[in-house]
Amino acid sequence: MGDGSGAGAWDELRDPVREQFVMDGWIATAPFEALCGIEIVEAAAGRAVLRMPFRVKLAQGGGLLHGGALTTLADTAVAVAVKSLVPAGTRFATLELNTRFLAPVRRGAVEARARVERVGERDLAGEADLYGEDGLRVAAFRSLFRLART
Fold first, then answer.
1. What's 22's DSSP letter?
2. Which domain holds residue 103?
3. What pLDDT score does 16 carry?
4. What is the CATH number of the domain that holds 35?
5. How many CB atoms lie within 10 A of CB 134?
6. Contacts with 74 (C-beta within 8 Å, 6 or more apart), sequence order
7. What pLDDT is recorded for position 144?
8. What are phi and psi of 57, to 5 degrees?
9. What is the pTM of this model?
10. What is the pLDDT of residue 23?
11. How far is CA 108 from the centre of its chain?
């Protein structure tokens, strides 16, 4: 990968944002989420359902879907549910999150069913349950989001 100095190799790996950051709308997947294969099934009234297929590139060394991929799906599902409650363009961020893994995912798609509720002037609490194709609950997720000051 280059002359050993590493400079050329790192230059090749850079991915400048410039014109690449494009979303189809307010309730849409961002570039990282699209890279993971996440699709929005529905989103309204503080609830959202999202799906993500098992892909080998999202697996950990033992061949199971990586916990980070499952957490990404859950966090994104709650964020989409938040977006269904707030005006377009509202800025917000995840403050805390917790994922409890209940069963491994070896194949198929995972579905996240998320819901949020306002717990303060700027805070929203979220939960998501993740299910494998066989209907087995594979993870439980909880998070706290904060709306930016306006």
1. -
2. 25-147
3. 60
4. 3.10.129.10
5. 10
6. 97, 99, 112, 114, 128, 130, 139, 141, 143
7. 97
8. -70, -10
9. 0.85
10. 76
11. 17
In a domain, residue 40? The reply is yes
Q: Which of 102, 103, 52 is nearest to 74 (CA)?
A: 52
- φ/ψ of residue 18, rounded to 5: 25, -115
Considering the domain boundaries, does residue 20 fall inside one? no
Please report where in the chains the tokens 């950990």 appear, as a residue: 60
Contacts of 73 (CB under 8 A, 6+ apart): 36, 38, 50, 52, 110, 112, 128, 130
Cα-based angle 97, 86, 82 (whole degrees, multiple of 5): 25
What pLDDT score does 24 carry? 80
- Token pair, residue 19, equals 């014109």
CA distances, 145 to each of 66, 82, 92 (Å): 23, 8, 7
Tokens of 143: 């998070």
pLDDT score, position 9? 62
pLDDT the model gives residue 19: 57
Angle at 93 between CA 147 and CA 132, to 5 degrees: 120
Structure token pair of residue 17 = 């944002």
User: Consecutive sets of 10 residues in the chain, 150 residues long: mean pLDDT of each?
Assistant: 53 58 82 94 97 96 96 98 95 96 97 94 96 97 95
